[in-house]
Fold this protein.
Amino acid sequence: MCGIVGYIGKNPALPILFSGLERLEYRGYDSFGFCVLNNNKIDFLCKEKGKISDHCHLRDSKSVGTVGIAHTRWATTGLVTKENAHPHCDCKEEIFIVHNGIIENYKILKENLVKEGHKFISETDTEVLAHLIEKYFEGNLEQAVKLALREVRGTYGIAVVSPKYPNKMVAARMSSPLLIGVNSDEFIVASDPSAIITRTRQIIHLDDDEIAVLTPDNFVISKQERESSSWSVRTKKIETIEWNLEEAEKSGYKHFMMKEIMQEPSTIEDAIRGRLYFEGGNVKLGGFENVEDRLRDVSSLVLIGCGTANYACKVGEYMLEEYAGIPTETDIGSEFRYRKSLFSKNAAGIFVSQSGETADTLAALREMKEKGLLTLGVTNVVGSNQARETDAGVYTRSGPEIAVASTKAFIGQLTTLALITVYLGRQREMALVMGNRIIDEISKLPELAQEVLDTKEDIKRIVGKYIDYKDFWYIGRKYNYPIALEGALKLKEVSYVHAEGTAGGELKHGPLALIDENCPTIAICPSDSVYEKMISNIEEIKARNGKVIAIATKGNEDIKKIVDDVIYIPKTLEMLTPILSVIPLHLFSYYFADALGKDIDKPKNLAKSVTVE
């Protein structure tokens, strides 16, 4: 959601800013803009609606300035207009700022600034920041930024430049990701590593309440001490991005989504590499070592995530209760804080987020930490807010996921939750033989996942039969009920076709009213403990002339007699079936959207990382 790129160095800034914004397109946006400085002049200033790819001519501008900021905006406060696009400036056009986040008290700040004579040209909350900095600007840019931020309530990642100080950039963050790419002769400020990967893999993550002052040759990071409001210089560790440029490219695929679906077997393999302990029927999770004793005392768990991550949590709930023997509940990050949750003394939370920056999930995490409870993370991004704020955690190791609709990251989350289940189960009453059985089946998953992908042409053919339908129903039970929700979500996200997911047993409680020959159902019914129940649900649908596509276990020939089409998945343990059953649903959604000619990697109205509530 929104993207920031800032450059300060010895090279022309515009091509680097342009390339950086192109790599942030996957986050979702509706407008964009640039501001480049050359000495004490504005060398290039442009704000546009729409896609960067429609304005490639901007890359050929004769701008030679070596300091600049750029931004992709996803409208929150204010409509999609050029005036509302970033960068925003003050009355004198001496302060230019790009901003991710929400200024919650912007209305009252704006009212006061207007009374003081400031003139606004946009509807955004961000412009308030530019005028606040102008208010305090007395020859020291970083001091003005510090004083302005003291008045702000909300979240922000910002980069600020001024033609008055053309060789300086100020960046700051509060609950919105921001990092600095470090190279031998340049620095790049960005909200996402993908924006800088072509220039450097060396990065520094800014923490909350930190401000960075950058020049072409150096940078200084300082942090505000909340108790005293004083600032102290910080020494920060330079980290290395673990993935490379090739992983952020399409590599010959038509869309990132297809590439990432095809990476699902390797995603499983990466998630389990070095973590399966066959001799002990257990798994090794280095991220849990420091809290191992506390984990033994955990008496209940809450799993929290948003969107697709929440569906992973729902699958994890079944795993943890059935195999680890821990009472577990799942909640949506955006709802958790508004419940009066009752926790046992030894409760713990597991927070699941691909980016580690999901605002609602982070808010729930902080709420739980305030109550003194153990917090655990499952995330894909090293150095993310969630990774730093949880007491312990496990990385999914899924690599960069560019398509907005999550596929391989979801597979990574499911696999990681299966590993956590074994780990916690072996701490309790899970027998050695059961531990061995589960990890043996987990070790086979990459090969089994590839088997599913090898049927992609069959799935594409089935999509062709149903491409004219406008409504779909997805049903599943137990472990595959959340997969029905995920399958429906994916179809909605990328094809904009109406789809609903339901627990199979709930059909008679309302959804059957919508089932007829015009509403096909995708039924997830592997040969598991609820197979016969699912067959009964399928028969209910067929009795109402509904068409059924079944996701069934390989070798089940009987199901062909009662459904219209079958997609097979290999046999595995019941708790692991979601990792295989979701793959054909990802493929189905992709092929459906592709047949309709949709912008699959960047669905309308959606963003990759939802960093505001």
